[in-house]
Amino acid sequence: MLIKKLHSIWFTVIILFISGCSSLPKSKANDACAIFKHYNSWYWAAQKAEKKWGVPIAVMLSMIYQESSFDSDAKPPRTRILWIIPWKRPTTAYGYCQAVDPTWKLYEKDTCRSFAYRNSFADSVDFIGWYANKAYKRTRLNKKDAMALYLAYHEGIGGYSRKTYLKKPWLIKTAKKVRQRARMYRIQMENCKSSLPGKPWYRLFY
């Protein structure tokens, strides 16, 4: 009986791990409620990150949408030689959060999470919360301001402080889209909050 129960627990853990590293069907990407009902573990991870870092779930979700469209293995397209031959990628950005290698290593060191992965939704959403918190500490950036947060995320905290984004109209336009989507996600979640999945008993193992 005990062995059977242990097998059941490990099966649940494996399912949660797989769902945490899965890509979201594009048909659900515009609906926060559909996203979290499709992957319950994503909602629990987002709740945990919100509580830990003080960044609204809707803001973090909008950031991930903009960075990777919820594709766990997203990478920048390769550059090309003579417009034909595939060459190197422009950056080391990878995963849901599109974090580059140096910043990700800093996150691992700062949070003591050496086994975090960018193709894990839980780790990526925690990364975004961590980054927003660092931006807040250095610039007093409002953690609820999705537009400002995205600008700092894209330009780096130093670049944001120097207002480098002012020379990039396209980036400001994109940041406004992030803010608009965050508002949409927030309203959606307010309307379906009561139907979102609660914490199950095996949340302890996730």
Query: What are the segments in which pLDDT stays under 50 over at least 5 consecutive residues?
Result: 1-20
H and E order: HHHHEEHHHH
Strand fraction band?
under 5%
- CATH third-level topology: Lysozyme
Provide mean pLDDT, rounded. Answer: 85
**Main beta sheet: strand number and arrangement?**
2 strands, antiparallel
Q: Radius of gyration, rounded?
A: 18 Å
List the domain count as a whole number.
Answer: 1
Shape: globular
Across the major sheet, the strand order is: 1-2
Provide an overview of this structure:
The chain has 206 residues and is mostly helical. It has a single domain (2-205), classed as Lysozyme. The chain has helices spanning 2-20, 32-38, 40-53, 57-68, 101-111, 121-139, 146-161, 169-192; strands spanning 80-81, 85-86. It has a two-stranded antiparallel ribbon. Helix 3 runs parallel beside helix 6 (121-139), helix 6 (121-139) packs across helix 7 (146-161) and helix 7 packs antiparallel against helix 8 (169-192). Residues 1-20 have low confidence and may be disordered.
